[in-house]
Amino acid sequence: MNYQFLVETFFVALSGVPIALLVTIVAMLVALPLGFLLALTRVNKIPVIHHIAKIYVSFVRGTPIIIQIFIIYSSIPLLLKMIFEKYNIAYDIYKINPIWYAFIVFAFSTTAILIEVFRSALSTIEKGQLEAAHAVGLSTIQAYRRIIIPQALVVAMPNICTATVNLIKATSLGYAMSLPEITLKAKVAANVGYNYVEAYIDIFIVYLILCSTVEYIFKRYEKHLSKFKVAKA
Amino acid sequence: MEKYFDASYIWNSIPVLLPFLKVTFLVAGSSIVLGTIFGLLLAAAKLSSIKLLQTLANLYTTIMRCTPSIVLLFLVYYGVPALAENFGINLHSIDTAIFVVVTFTLQFAAIMSEVIRSAYLAINRGQFEAAVSVGLTPFQAYRRIIFPQALVIALPNFGNGMIALLQEGALAYTIGLIDIVGKANLIIASNINAHALEIYIALAIVYWVLSIIIEKFFAMLEKFFGKGKKTLETT
After folding, report:
1. For residues A15 and A186, is the Cβ–Cβ distance under 8 A?
2. ipTM value of the model?
3. Phi, psi of B231 (to 5 degrees)
4. Which residue of A has its CA nearest to B64?
5. Chain B residue closest in CA terms to A199
6. Distance CA A229, CA B95 (A)
7. Could A64 and B170 be called an inter-chain contact, meaning their C-beta atoms sit closer than 8 Å?
8. Mean pLDDT value across residues A33-52
9. Helices A17-43 & A149-170, crossing angle to 10 degrees?
10. Across the interface, do A165 and B66 touch by the CB < 8 Å criterion?
11. Can you say whether the dihedral through the CA atoms of B59, B62, B65, B66 is positive or negative?
12. Positive or negative torsion for Cα B65, B21, A56, A130
């Protein structure tokens, strides 16, 4: 065991945290509203869209994320190439920063997960809540914003936490898109002297710290939210 | 489109890939069996009255939940032989499949311990007391009363855990296991990286179909085992 390397690489791995967090946050920012809207189409059974959403969720849940990465990472350059050739845009597609692919892949998969999270959360809210809100004169949008969403969010929070932690963990697969995040950075550092054990211990510790922090923040927030829950069964 | 994308590759590669599902199943199956046993022990530790055991089991679950599969995979793959070397044991020549099974057993056990624990806690304590009061031994009470009810509650989560394990298992190719993903990568390499997309789509289809089958199978099991279950239809 090379302890000096262990300590040095820890900071190398730590320097990948901003990228991992950036990908997580962007993916979440895209996935939260999109997932919610698509969950609404599922709950309200909007024709066509809710079937598409169903197939989409089934696909994402049914295939390993690494294969989704492979597919998106190899299909988007092909698509872009065709578009660029058609419109004579002189831009080298191989110069695109891999982080864009990461945004697309992780937003794609997280949206599907969140559709299910929101769908189950919305289904725990009784229909009477919406009717009552309508009865006192709120519009549907107001009813959702003030009555339904705050309640559904409390129910959805633990699952959103799990989804976030899973997303952070999934960014470790960014190496397949040569995204310089935690895993890839430490691995590259280890390549020089074959210090893989040390490198992976470092990566392990970094993820442990990162994920437990995120879990802790969510727990605190959940506690804060549950204050608004007055009636207890 | 025809220049870059040729759908016939998808259909032609599936028959080549399918025989390698055997490896995927073998690895996933062993991990599920071993992981369930280990998970049962962990759940027992969590439910025991000994504080130390509880803390250890909970710590283990938290650590496993926070570790990406790929990191755990490499940690086991590089770490265990290095550790064994200190004791003079050479583990460098054993099959990669063993490392994969060890990794996913560790991970699946963490998932299962939570599944088992929550299923056990969902059964009302009064059930056990009632069973004992009519003259069953504690073991009989567990086997005949608690277990059948807990099983029905655990089944959907067990199914989800299995699907998750199957998908995380796709990462085993990174340490050189020739399962279905490993074979797909070999095919792509032999094509000099041409038509990678089609082969990956074929892979996605195989996994998708598998997951749907598992999901349907567990829904069926749930119906079968849940036939005696009567709850208030509140939701």
Report:
1. no
2. 0.84
3. -125, 165
4. A208
5. B75
6. 54
7. yes
8. 90
9. 140
10. yes
11. negative
12. negative
* Shortest CA gap B53–chain A (Å): 21
Find out whether B112 and B104 touch, Cβ atoms under 8 Å. Answer: no
User: Can you read off the two tokens belonging to residue B132?
Assistant: 């004992």
Residues of B in contact with A169 (CB under 8 A): 66-69
Q: What is the CA radius of gyration of chain A?
A: 21
CA-CA distance, A43 to B168, in Å (whole number)? 30
- DSSP secondary structure letter of residue A125: S
A130-162: pLDDT as tens digits: 899 999 999 988 998 888 888 888 888 889 999
Instruction: Take residue B34 and report the two structure tokens written for it.
Output: 């071993």
d(CA B59, CA B56): 5
Residues 6+ apart with CB under 8 A from A55: none
A222: number of Cβ within 10 Å: 15
Give residue A207's region: left, alpha or beta (phi > 0; psi -120 to 50): alpha
CA distance B19 to B17: 6
| Cα–Cα distance for residue pair A193/A206, rounded to 1 Å | 21
- For residues B162 and B181, give the distance between their C-alpha atoms in angstroms, rounded to a whole number: 18
Q: Which tens digit of pLDDT belongs to each residue from B38-88?
A: 999 999 999 989 999 999 999 999 999 889 999 999 999 988 888 888 887
> Chain-wide mean pLDDT for chain A?
88
Contacts of B62 in chain A (CB under 8 A): 212
Tokens 């009064």 — which residue?
B126
Tokens of A130: 């919406």
Residue B1 has pLDDT above 50, yes or no: no
Q: How big is the CA angle at A125 (ends A122 and A129), to the nearest 5 degrees?
A: 125
What residue has token string 């309508």? A134
DSSP 3-state assignment of B1? coil
B contact set with A (CB within 8 A): 1, 4-5, 62-63, 65-72, 74-75, 78-79, 82, 163, 166-171, 181, 196-197, 200-201, 203-204, 207-212, 235
- In the chain, the amino acid numbered B65 is R
Q: Could you tell me the sign of the dihedral formed by the alpha carbons of A60, A48, B233, A158, in that order?
A: positive
Tracing tokens 């991990």 back to the chain, one arrives at B31
Calculate how close chain A gets to B68, using CA atoms only, in Å: 5
pLDDT at residue number A228: 67
Q: How far is the C-alpha of A38 from the C-alpha of A46, rounded, in Å?
A: 10
The amino acid that residue B99 corresponds to is F
What is the total residue count of chain A?
A: 233
